[in-house]
UniProtKB/TrEMBL annotation:
<dbReference type="InterPro" id="IPR036909">
    <property type="entry name" value="Cyt_c-like_dom_sf"/>
</dbReference>
<protein>
    <submittedName>
        <fullName>Cytochrome c5</fullName>
    </submittedName>
</protein>
<keyword id="KW-0732">Signal</keyword>
<dbReference type="GO" id="GO:0020037">
    <property type="term" value="F:heme binding"/>
</dbReference>
<dbReference type="GO" id="GO:0009055">
    <property type="term" value="F:electron transfer activity"/>
</dbReference>
<feature type="signal peptide">
    <location>
        <begin position="1"/>
        <end position="23"/>
    </location>
</feature>
Length: 81
């Protein structure tokens, strides 16, 4: 369970960091970034995206991607977009 929290927390922070780097001159709230870039797919599992709060799916995705580094790469590149 601790690994799951660490993975989800780190993935969330890294996702927010990626979007903040792209728009460094414009400060935005994390909820705004998530609403603009993540919710469309992750709220409903569109294109097999792991749903927000589904720890089992996120753990499996982390295993498939080789851990947090793989999740970060997917965050930057995007999947199914």
């Amino acid at each position: 369970m601790k690994l799951t929290r660490k993975i989800l927390s780190t993935a969330g922070v890294l996702t927010l960091w990626v979007f903040n780097v792209q728009a460094a001159d414009t400060a935005r709230a994390p909820d705004d970034i998530i609403a603009a870039h993540c919710v469309a797919c992750h709220s409903v599992g569109l294109l097999n995206a792991p749903k927000t709060g589904d720890t089992a799916a996120w753990e499996e995705r982390a295993r498939q991607k080789g851990g947090l580094d793989g999740l970060l790469a997917s965050t930057i590149k995007g999947i199914g977009i």
